[in-house]
Amino acid sequence: MKKFTLVCLALVLVPLMAFAQGQSDTAAKESGPVTLTIWGRDIPDTAADHIYVHDLIEGFQKANPDIKLEYIPLGDPGLADKTKITMAAGVDQLPEIVQSWGGSVMGGYADAGRLLDLTSELASIPGSKAASDAMSWKGKTYGVAPFFAVAGIFLNEDIFARNGLKAPTTIVEMEAVCDTLLAKGIQPFACGAKDKWPALAMYMYLVNRYGGNAFDRAQARTLSFADDAFVNAAKTYQMWVKKGYFGTKPLGEAYGDAQQQMAIGKAAMMVTGSWMCSQFSNKEFTDQKIGFYAFPVVTGGVGKVTDVMGMTDIGFFATKNAEAKKDAVVRFFKYAMSVEACASEPGRICAVPGVPAKAELTGMASKVFAASQSVQFWWDQDLPPAVTSPLNDTIQSFFLPNSDVASSLKAFEELVIDEMGPVKK
Description:
alpha/beta; ten-stranded mixed sheet; two-stranded antiparallel ribbon; about 15% strand; disordered N terminus
């Protein structure tokens, strides 16, 4: 195990040292174009899932021949944040630009002095406030977010039409729909709880619908994560599991399994992010007609239908190592937030005004986003990293029919106290 660890560290640190040397060479202001290195997610090819970043790089290079982009795909931003980006930040060897979802994970790098403050330089760029907030931390803006994601209900329109059902607007209506579907042998929800994080979106909505801004208060330590809003939401979740709303083995099915359940019409609904709009609109992936709707409200609850859960889908921040190349970085960010650069994205919600939705499903999700009056960022990106994995573990306990969800939340609150402090009296 020690040998494997050392080899992995070598594989990561060797290219990082090479990158550092490249920075030094550029800092010496050699002749030739300025080079910006970007650690991103997508492979810059012409496949539908990657066409945006392909066109972003190609378009920027064409418009800015004096700036050379070195784009390195790292894969999933959440995984990269926990490995390569964290390691590079620890030894101050980050590239000039990093793709990120923003939030508290990005904030950790800002607190460590690794990011470049571009508040004044980016102030005039048009875009949604929610997207801008996601790439800001403690009053300073470090990047841009051309695309946003919101969670909602992906709903199989054909299944609903055949069974005389309508999209639910209240939790009572939702339960009636689920009971009708079960009676007809149709699984109400796909989830993918085996991967843990997919179960979070529904819980966030339930907590909001019962307790409004309960999460904000718990995060600010004026409310406990074991408060009634969290417990009632967990009990509702667990009751739905017991009734079979998520099938017979939800903890044994991954996110990919849940997507397939929707694609073949096995499940009628799925609560997840709007990043799935492109895939669920793709006729090669599914022949089902799928729509997107806001999450219902609890009758007598505090949360409103305009309270939406979501966060940056594609964002970029600048690091302190880009300070000598600030002008080039700002030019890249401005281009990334242009209508021209965003136009080729097939399915995500664009935070830039004037970019039309290419798919009907994306248009439906965009309307939910546009109607929102508040956007709550994903908890596992907005809380300190030390409590995010335990949070998702806690939510998994709701899928155990006989677990004591109140005790699980009390245990989670104790961990939060250790990491974030007690509730303020």
